[in-house]
Amino acid sequence: xxxxxxxSDHVNMTPMIDxxxxxxxxxxxxxxxxxxxxxxxxxxPDSPHGPMVTEAKDPRTxxxxxxxxxxxxxxxxxxxxxxxxxxxxxxxxxxxxxxPSIPIRIRADGGAEHTDVKRVLDACTAAGLHKISFxxxxxxx
Amino acid sequence: MTPMIDxxxxxxxxxxVxxxxxxxxxxxxxxxxxxxxxxxxxxxxxxxxxxxxxAEGGREKGFSLNGRTMSRAELSSILNxxxxxxxxxxxxxxxxxxxxxxxxxxxxxxxxxSGLNNLSVVSAE
Lengths: 141, 125
Prior knowledge:
The complex is a heterodimer of chains A (about 140) and B (about 120).
Chain A: H1 2-9, H2 14-35, E1 62-66, E2 72-74, E3 77-79, H3 81-94, E4 104-108, H4 114-126, E5 132-139
Parallel strand pairs in A: 1-4, 4-5
Antiparallel strand pairs in A: 1-2, 2-3
Chain B: H1 2-18, E1 24-30, E2 48-53, E3 63-65, E4 68-70, H2 72-85, E5 90-96, H3 101-114, E6 118-124
Parallel strand pairs in B: 2-5, 5-6
Antiparallel strand pairs in B: 2-3, 3-4
């Protein structure tokens, strides 16, 4: 009798904690995966007066990253210049008539040389893309 | 109860340590000349502001406006004044190949501040 009373006093919490723990691990992992689409090693230059990047952006937007050493990345995948040109050209063709209006965001490191940024710009214009913008930090957290 | 509190406390510490507010980002839109190599000399409309960006240590102060060399602060005040006449003027930004990308963003930022939004970026070798 005494034993029964004790077990009803302390409800077994272990399964619930297990489930909660699984869920927390799941959320932590998905947040990390989402963040990994952009490189954290790029020190964006400051632009306190530029227009703010809004969340409601065109889903077709392609973000191209240029690091300090002049390497190109799309979604953290390093690309050679030839490969970048090929990828952009293919994307434009796949979208048909709406292709050239795909917005391009260039996340270039502040210390990157303009020549390397120019190579990306040239690759974009060669593919016919004309909506190009640079990403900069408006307000550092 | 103690083990659960331990776990929750660990998680709380984890989230507190890894918490960081994301930076607010800005986008600076530009336009590029068409990649048409057959195009002869670029026609320069009379109302065009030409800004040149030089590499570190080049051309004295790093920037020039319509041929006059100047610093970032001077460029900012003059562009602001020019923008007060007309905001539809085209700004042709010519970048030296070895200049840092941050300087280009600096100029684009000045243009955004003064409301000039007809920006064209070209590159010089």
